[in-house]
Specification:
2 helices
């Protein structure tokens, strides 16, 4: 009886090891596919980065110019609202 139990235990251990090995092989294959896709994505991101590198300084200049325009428009809108209010046009107040 003991020999039978030892034999069944060894067979069970062999089955568990076999199943684990099979799943590890399947996981390895899936990870290789994922790695391939991530490599392609990284290559594309590097290409986009290199092609858009020259935009950075231009955006800074554009933002500075827009800030100047914004600060200049503040007093103009105040003057326009004051002129409209002086004329008494209804419904044209500042929102």
């Amino acid at each position: 009886m003991t020999a039978l139990l030892v034999t069944l235990t060894v067979v069970e251990i062999a089955l568990v090891v076999g199943v684990l090995a099979t799943y590890l092989v399947l996981i390895d294959r899936r990870l290789r596919v994922v790695s391939t896709h991530l490599g392609k994505i990284a290559f594309g991101v590097r290409a986009v980065e290199s092609q858009t590198a020259s935009i950075g300084p231009s955006v800074v200049h554009i933002n500075e110019t827009l800030s100047e325009i914004d600060s200049a428009l503040g007093p103009l809108t105040d003057k326009a609202n004051a002129a409209v209010a002086a004329r008494g046009v209804p419904g044209t107040g500042q929102r």
